[in-house]
Amino acid sequence: MSFHSGFAAILGPPNAGKSTLLNALVGQKLAIISPKPQTTRNRILGIINVPQQKSRDGGQVVLLDTPGVHLPDSSLGRKMMAEVGNAMEGCHLILFIVDVRRKWDAADGLALELLKKSATPAFLLLNKIDLLPDKRSLLPLIAQFEQVHDFKEIIPISALRKRGLDDLLQSILQALPKGPRYFSADQITDQPVRFMAAEIIREQILLSLREEVPHAIAVIVDHFGEGEKLTRIAATIYCERDGQKAIILGKRGQMLKRIGTAARLDIEKMIGTHVYLELYVKVQPGWRESRQFVEELDWRHQLEQIAGPSERR
Ligand code: GDP
Ligand code: MG
After folding, report:
1. Among 11, 18, 19, 20, which residue has the most ligand 1 atoms within 8 Å of its CB, making it the best to mutate?
2. Tell me: the pLDDT tens digits for 195-247?
3. Full-model pTM
4. Nearest listed ligand to the Cα of residue 40
5. Which whole-number Å values give the CA distances from 303 to 142, 298, 299, 306, in the listed order?
6. Domain 193-306 bears CATH identifier 3.90.1150.150
7. CA 13 to chain CA mean position, Å
8. Which residue, judged by its Cα, is nearest atom 20 of ligand 1?
9. Domain regions of the chain by residue span
């Protein structure tokens, strides 16, 4: 039996279930999920180690979750699309994922264009089959996709219900080159916990607030103090207008309190200590248009800042 390893990028239109698939395959929540488009803003790396068995190949799959493909209309959008491009560069396999219920639209076309530009082999993943009352309706969909691209494999799955994922993982392994692992066997991501904490806070905002507010939100962790039993975290929620700030705060601060409590519980689950979470809300007009601010949101940039002499706050 042989050992395969390599990079696979998950690509597709917004809301197809890319992040749900990453979490399901890794077996841990690395990416936040919401029913709103553009939940994922940067590429998220997840590592899966498949043990070698007598009758089965083993290996290491390095998965890259990406923002949904869309026409960018801001600095943030352009940064998100750059993340998609970076993930696709140098990967061995592309997992092109679509929602089986959706009619073909511009977002699918745009994603497919990106796929066609790269010479990397691709699987087509037909996701959310749990929502299809009649599986026969997959056939015309498959025929349609076969006409537009030469997919190496076409695999129906449900990322949410974890259906078809074992077979998918085996197929991915077979499509990766033979070779040793890229990451140590106990590592599951490259994201620092302080960034994951910021994402968990943003997820609670996405789940609690109306459509237009979450898109204008960014979260930066200003302080992350780890203790054996208690982790102290201070974070700032940035929005673009006073009206949005009022919505985030809610009547007598009730909304912010609710968001904070839900986020704290999730962060505690992730890091396994008690958490003391302080949240601040600031208005930063038009931040999505600011290249500098968007760059500061990137945790790789934040790490450089932390490594330097002046930690924020
Ligand atoms: P992304 O934008 O492509 O990363 O999509 P997400 O993973 O954030 O998922 C978008 C929405 O689709 C969320 O509400 C998920 O719960 C839902 N979803 C994802 N996969 C499935 C699936 O297999 N079945 C069903 N029913 N819902 C799914
Ligand atoms: Mg996502």
Report:
1. 20
2. 999 999 999 999 999 878 889 999 999 999 999 999 999 999 999 999 999 99
3. 0.94
4. 2
5. 44, 9, 6, 5
6. no
7. 13
8. 17
9. 3-175, 193-306
